[in-house]
Write a structure and sequence with these properties.
InterPro entries: Desiccation-related_membrane, YtxH. By secondary structure, the protein is mainly α. It has two helices and no strands. The N and C termini lie far apart (87 Å).
Length: 121
């Protein structure tokens, strides 16, 4: 918002300085100069109004985009939680079987070690 105020202030100061320079350096008549200054003032007002409208549109778009982004993040988080829960539900029944299989492998390795010890002795 500070940048917009600085821009507007710069435009107004620049417009005032250019109007004063035009008045002081012009060889035209007073009425011509007044008409040009009036036209430039009107153009400056229009430009400021357009900048203000564009700023408001941008603000509205940013607000909508941030709301949509928050909704998407929330939806994605819910989907990820659901996927993790489904994965847990899928893996959990097999977890006991895997544990038993590992115990069998461990017993087989111990038996093999004992056989190797007796064979080497």
């Amino acid at each position: 918002m500070a940048n917009v105020k600085s821009l507007l202030l710069g435009l107004m100061v620049g417009g005032t300085v250019s109007a004063a320079a035009t008045l002081l350096t012009t060889p035209s008549s007073g009425s011509d100069v007044r008409n040009r200054v009036k036209n430039q003032g009107t153009e400056l007002k229009d430009m400021i109004a357009n900048l203000k409208q564009d700023g408001l549109k941008l603000r509205k778009q940013l607000t909508e985009t941030s709301k949509e982004g928050a909704a998407l993040v929330k939806e994605l988080t819910q989907e990820m939680k659901k996927s993790v829960e489904e994965w847990k539900d899928t893996v959990e029944p097999h977890q006991e079987n895997i544990h038993q299989y590992l115990e069998q492998i461990e017993l087989s390795l111990k038996d093999l070690e004992e056989k190797m010890k007796t064979k080497n002795s």
